[in-house]
């Protein structure tokens, strides 16, 4: 077979010449053999043993997962039966300059799935690496087959299915997509013979600084006699990120070599690291010989103290803090586990903007994401990848635990180690975290109680109350499991209020950040979330913000405004609560706008900003409340909307609010007066519209405009439903009709005490006033509704809260404004990119439904109605709790008849693991003790 090789030696040599003129006093150099991510990946030769495009040599970009380039086969971790077990063989060439003979040269892989061994120039080099989620390296100097001054052939053999059973079970039979290949960067690390291999730092909030330095002197020493002196001193200097020295240098003698050198010092009043003030420092460590610097090493760190106080809570820098966390796995819909550095930063910024202060990942994140967490201010739980039993065999697990701690321990964002997940805990390696970690961080076992912290997942409302009533510190490292449009924000307000009111609730970590839908190369790039297994994100696979994103953002906003509407005597004073951990509100800025919106009959008009200003926040300390003063113009009441946004001290918007301004005059749309049509007193013509009512019941039969049906009919009807389904609330009606001046009035009374009145007035305005007697049942929903032909509806435009729909247990998030969208029938988690057209929209002033006939149905609800539009589609998928796909409870109860509703009791939406009624009071059924009363004005044009 003829083999082809990737020839990049000349490019590597050019890079070396540009960046490595001398190693005297220098630090490590990194020479990439691959790209840093998918966007700059480098082609290597590749041979796949089985599956797609197997059996011949070709090319593949590195880093990447081979499935995304049409090789091998796709598997989800929880698939039954045997999974794909193809192997991949990679080949490339690299050049080692002659002068590197005296250097320390490592070949580093940051990640390769799942078992990896290498050959150089046809000979094996080093031991096989087991484990797909942590870096590993090979020291090249020790191997005689490595040639300097020449090209070397690198061959990498990757097994997707490892030969070790426990590793296969731990990393590949998990609840996520399984991939193969070299998916993180590969590079040469070139160091001088005497260098600092790594450091371990413990920098506390009181300014105390402790550091272990691990130097290496890679030069021969004698077996007998006196060893030559290669370095004689280690000097460490704390610096700002800009390189200015902080405190005095730390100096320690070193005799030839040492396994560890420890430094301790004190820094006066250091700037501390926290999610709100992510202050960072660096320490520069130099190895010297007779006063001359041989090499140096620089490490970024932060001063901070994070501690678990048993039976109390979590403390950061001496102050109690609540975890506002989200689970995130390393995933990209186009590239699998291969992530570009800029993508990692963008995702971190987006998570931070949702007011999250902690990220947990089942798999160790990329170093670029870690740097983003350090600099943006997000705490991190770093985890050994092991999902359920069995746990990884101890010899392999020890290596992985060592790599996790030594790779991530100096990031101040890391506050916990997680030794596996959900029963995948190798108890034999717990001690290693404490042995390797100078900070001695707490080790958690997610889903159980360990080292003084209870992390049990997915408590229902009853279990949550039990946990919060105990003395144990409680931090569910997964809760409110999202699925489709359920979970996350649904039930969260109840949960969060309970956690904040407790003594031992430490916060919580939502599952999870993004829908893990992979663009499958064997299906033309179709996004596949593996049914209901991975459609559980707050955002879609490409970062599409779903409804719960805005709910979470508002509930976790560090600035809270409880004002639901502008009071009648509003004078520009807005009550604010500061829920920041340590930021006073005067370090934030607020911007406000006065906005005018077109009328409900203007189908093309846009919102217009009339006045806007930016002001500093009030002097309100964390944990306190105060008032924000807006200097509004004298004519502010003539505007339609007041918008307010808050920007934190990092320049990022933390929340946006808006309120309607009452007092606008109604638009006069014509002076046509109603008249009876065709001799029927229950068929009324007004302008171009004809309203036909039932003489028997007074209910609407049909509505036409210019002879074309609008699809609005059959109401008002009372719709209520309990856990078993729709409740029979039918009544016998008696209707009467009369003239009231120039209006036509139709009254109807039911035998259960309900009543409604139609008033058909000039200008085509048809007012419905209704009062329905409630059911005696505890109901999930209660609504007054009408028929609406779905196939006639083209789009909707509304003034009210939006753009996302709401549920009874997910009211937070949407804001008042002018919104519009085209008809769609999307189901979140199975389709992405469009905001749902169907569902319940809150605080509606008016809503205009554009029809395919060219007509419109305009509903004027007065600003407080919860309007349901058509029946939203529930995502398809297995719902049997005993199925291998897992229990699915992310659905809702909703009227099955009608199409346009005025809700008085909103249904809740469930999560993957719990019905809506199990996740707090907002989602529970209740008995409606008061009549369902309201008033709405219809106009059809």
From TrEMBL:
Reactions catalysed, semicolon-separated, are:
Hydrolysis of terminal non-reducing beta-D-galactose residues in beta-D-galactosides
**GO molecular function, a single term:** carbohydrate binding
Q: Which residues form the signal peptide?
A: 1-24
> What GO terms describe the biological role, i.e. biological process, of this protein?
lactose catabolic process
Its Gene Ontology cellular component terms are: beta-galactosidase complex
Which named protein is this?
beta-galactosidase
Gene3D superfamilies, per this entry? 2.70.98.10, Galactose-binding domain-like (2.60.120.260), Glycosidases (3.20.20.80), Immunoglobulins (2.60.40.10)
UniProt keyword Nucleotide-binding present: no
Domain Glycoside hydrolase family 2 catalytic: residue ranges: 313-522
Q: Which SUPFAM superfamilies match?
A: (Trans)glycosidases, beta-Galactosidase/glucuronidase domain, Galactose mutarotase-like, Galactose-binding domain-like
